[in-house]
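Mods, move this if it's the wrong board.
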Amino acid sequence: MISDGSSAEARSERFERVATAVYEPLQRYVRRRAPWDVVDDVVADTLLVLWRRLDDVIETNELAWCYGVARRVLANHHRSVGRHRRLLDRITLASCTAPETSVPGDVAPGALRDAFKRLPAIDREVLALWAWEGLEPRDIATVLDVSANAAAIRLHRAKRRLRSQLDGRKNSVVTGQPHVGPRENG
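Not the wrong board. Structure tokens:
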């Protein structure tokens, strides 16, 4: 189907008219249902869907249609937040129950989130694949295109580094820095 410039221009004009009309009510709708820091993202995602599906929107029903889209965008956001919380809970549980290192049971979610963010990207990815996606080391190996043994080692080290971040320990074994020079006893 070949579209001419006039229909594209008319579509663009309709979008601008509808977006202008629904923007403020949509902002209020989302503000009542979501934390302030996600409102703009939800509204932007809703307007993006409006742009993509503008031809499906009934002329007199644009605001209600946008509310429906915003409701689904918010539901997706809430599911994402839930998955993130479950990831942090699983990582915390694994960190607290690992036999080789103990972590205080009163680790605050914010501290865990900060510790997780301080990890190298590959450690975050391995932990997320394990905790969030529920993958075993052999499956993580497939995702990362490494051997199952390498994936298991990476997972073990990532857990250890996370525990180290939570404990506040800084030593060469935990941070993955090679030891240089002779070891001293004493």
